[in-house]
Amino acid sequence: FFFGVMSATSAPERTLLVVIVDVNSHNWGQVPHKVTFDNMLQHLMFCLNAHLQLNAANTLALIASDHNRSEIVFPCDSFMPNNDHVLYFDDVKDAVLQQLHAFVESSSLAGSTRKMGRSTLSSALSHALCYINRIVAASPDTACRVVAITVSPDTSSQYISIMNNIFSACKLQVAIDGCVLGACHSSFLQQAAELTGGAYSKPTS
Amino acid sequence: MAGPNDVFSYLVTLDDRDKDALYGEPFTCMSVFRSLPPLAQQIVLRVLIPNCLVSTVFGEQVLQDFAQPKDGQQPIQKLEDMEALQPLARLRVCVSPTRQLHDLSLNPPFRNSLIQGLAGDGCMDTNVQQKKQKALAPDDPVKLNDYAWNTWEDVLKLIVKNRIDTENQGLTELLEAANLIRVDKRQTQEGKIKMSHQITQDGFQFLLKDVYTQIWVVLRQFLHDKVDAQSHKAPEYEHMKLKILQFLFRLGYSKVGTCYSRQELDPYVNQWLPELANTFGIVYVPRVKKKDSEEWGPSKNKYYVTPLGLHLTSRSPNRPLFRNPDKDHDAGSGYIIVETNYRVYAYTENPLERALLNLFVDVQYHLPNLAVGMITRESVLNALRAGIGADQLLGYLHQRAHPEMQKNDPVLPETVVDQVRLWDKERSRIQVDQATLYKNFSNEEEYKMYKAAAERSGGLLYHLDKKQIVVVSRDCEARINELRQQLRR
């Protein structure tokens, strides 16, 4: 199925797309209707490629978030963009998949079930916004968007941090899109999308 | 220059069958997608996966709103009328069986190939070479860059030079066919035929354009002359042109410096590859020693893509527009400084660039790394007379402006820009006609007769009743002289 969220990026100038991927393996196992992680990755790659094709100067960043940590997975140290600053999709795809794989492998399996079910959406959002801030300071003409793909339910203790994130996103003029693949709606993402001018979708098939 | 200046405008001129055949390759579709305006890109993306009509996704009312020209006019029904969809229709990305707006959908071959390309299935297989035992080291990007620019500059030098270069007979014919040079054949006293060529007006304009337009114009002629000519001979060559075009689009997605295998290419493309390399510099075929002999010949197995080839089909703002002589800066930074007192300083050693500058700047001093000159009325008028437009001239300077200059706003000094435009307008302000002035008539009757005669013959340029002066153009002087003879008698 095609992410309706993807088509929300329409800026003609160079755009930075930051994708937050929830790799919480516990919650992925509980996703209904036959959506698998690999499946999602395939579609995600498609969207990323389309994004890169829209404008030759478009750039990407990927953040993986687990139950206890979140990291900027791409761009990483081992990925060397060449002199022309052209992102070749093959390189990007390989690097992204490799890094995600490493991230998932290294996630610790210790901890109680309750803790495992958490999501670290707020820390991932903060990561994303800090990265965007850095990039915008370097090249001010970049438009930015954040797309969050989650499967985990909302953790109510993160409410305040997420609201802070939303307000800073408004200030930076960054739209936050949300795509929820889990069982229940995420009101945090709904609020984020509405306040920052992004899109929210929860596919049903 | 006549004809499309851009690969994508050229695509518009192909007929539908050819376009559909072209869209069988994923890279072609990706390149075309990349070149579309943003709105068109969005439309394509949204209709891509669901494979439905455009009006289903957008709603017919929305489409009408997009296309609403003025208030109170009839709603747009026909495909051609809607401006936002024009590129899609012309490139045959979207088709409409009934030529109506509500029936618009994506062209199936385009759609399939685009999906394939976006999913990453059409990626070039570079692993084939790496698996082999031999160390096929990727070529040095700097060397490839130099090769590409040198090759293309040779072409430009040929246009600018006056002597004929007998080795490059094929290239000369190509340039002549593209109307960039004019070849004169003269017979010398010994009976030998001596040829020289001169640049044409189109050629002047051509020189000042950016390199990718230049390459494309000559490439287009090449495709027309050489490839189409062969294709008429044998029917299986029919698709040669399309294959080469597909290959060009593929280049836009390759990496500079990686070695690609020639064996995987289409045989038709393979046949023309050395020529593409030697004439245009968009690919590079290394020279290797042939088996069992000491001769060097072009490699049959590998080729590299050069920066010029990479950016030929892309419209990326990062692409280098001209060769940079200064190794410190990134490719494409400028080297010309224009001052408000009309002095021009060009930090370049490249003889071709100096020659181009000579076209419209009065170059006064040549230093090892610098050319100093002034923009004078004569130099600019010379250029204008040769056919270069004022805007082209200014565009050329603007493109190559030094980074320090580019910090100004506007980049070029206004005085210089305005003055060049004024000199250009001057040429059309005054019109010079050869004429004769008649005055000191004996009486008013005579004056009136002369004036009437001139008016009748259509050569009356100016008359003044008060002073009894008639100015007649040279062409009509004969008639006036007749009148004079009549009156004398």
From TrEMBL, chain A:
Name the keywords, alphabetized. DNA damage, DNA repair, Metal-binding, Nucleus, Transcription, Transcription regulation, Zinc, Zinc-finger
Checking InterPro entries in the record gives: TFIIH_Tfb4/GTF2H3, vWFA_dom_sf
Could you state one GO cellular component term attached to this entry?
Answer: transcription factor TFIIH core complex
Highest rank taxon of the organism = Eukaryota
A GO biological-process term: regulation of DNA-templated transcription
Compartments where found: Nucleus
PANTHER family given for it? GENERAL TRANSCRIPTION FACTOR IIH SUBUNIT 3 (PTHR12831:SF0), TRANSCRIPTION INITIATION FACTOR IIH TFIIH , POLYPEPTIDE 3-RELATED (PTHR12831)
* Family to which this protein belongs: Belongs to the TFB4 family.
Any idea what this protein is called? RNA polymerase II transcription factor B subunit 4
UniProtKB/TrEMBL annotation, chain B:
Q: Which family does it belong to?
A: Belongs to the TFB2 family.
Q: Which UniProt keywords apply?
A: DNA damage, DNA repair, Nucleus, Transcription, Transcription regulation
Please verify whether the record's keywords include Transcription.
Answer: yes
One GO term of the cellular component aspect? transcription factor TFIIH holo complex
Q: Which GO terms describe its biological process?
A: nucleotide-excision repair
Q: What is its main location?
A: nucleus
Q: Which organism is it from?
A: Eutreptiella gymnastica
Looking up InterPro entries in the UniProt record yields: Tfb2_C (IPR040662), TFIIH_p52/Tfb2 (IPR004598)
**What is the protein's given name?**
General transcription factor IIH subunit 4
**Transcription factor Tfb2 C-terminal domain span:** 418-481
Give a short account of what the protein does.
Answer: Component of the general transcription and DNA repair factor IIH (TFIIH) core complex which is involved in general and transcription-coupled nucleotide excision repair (NER) of damaged DNA.
State its location(s). Nucleus
GO: which molecular function terms? ATPase activator activity; double-stranded DNA binding
